[in-house]
Amino acid sequence: MGNSSKGKHAAASGGLADSAALTKLFEALAGQSGAKVHNARTVKLLASGLAKMSQKLVEEAAEVAIDAVRERHEGVVSESADLLYHLVVLWFALGIDPASVWAEMSRREQLFGLAEKPPKSRP
């Protein structure tokens, strides 16, 4: 791997405090007068419906994964920002406040020591 450990973990120090940028995006969407969002791309995305918004989210996740496998670090950063944008727009469309997501991550951290994905329950 071509990147130093400093580069791999440089952003890790911010923790959930870095979630402020996602919350700010959500609040910007929610703060628009009524349902009027002024960014043309975001207006088009919101008007496209949940299926299309979900499809875009999956596409962005795939682009992150492809750049990761190819070790294109700048691509992963750029595509991750796109992925997070699409995720926040989807939350907004569904009326999911980012605070709900942060609360779930905190709950997981309390249970598992990290805000990790919980283990699958066995049937």
Q: Brief description of this entry?
A:
This protein has 123 residues and is an all-alpha fold.
Structural commentary:
The protein has 123 residues and is mostly helical. The protein has a single domain (17-112), classed as Orthogonal Bundle (Helix Hairpins), CATH 1.10.287. Helices cover 66% and strands 0% of the residues. The protein contains six helices and no strands. It has helices spanning 5-9, 20-30, 40-47, 50-69, 73-94, 98-112. Helix 2 (20-30) crosses helix 5 (73-94) and helix 4 (50-69) runs antiparallel to helix 5 (73-94). The relative contact order is 0.12. The model is unreliable at 1-7 and 9-14 (pLDDT under 50).
Question: How are the SSEs ordered, and which strands pair?
Answer:
Layout: H1 5-9, H2 20-30, H3 40-47, H4 50-69, H5 73-94, H6 98-112
Helix pairs in contact: 2-5, 4-5
Feature tags:
Helix Hairpins
Rg from C-alpha positions? 16 Å
How many helical stretches? 6
CATH architecture: Orthogonal Bundle
Distance between the termini: 39 Å
Unreliable stretches (pLDDT < 50, length at least 5) are: 1-7, 9-14
Strand-residue fraction?
A: under 5%
Oligomer: single chain
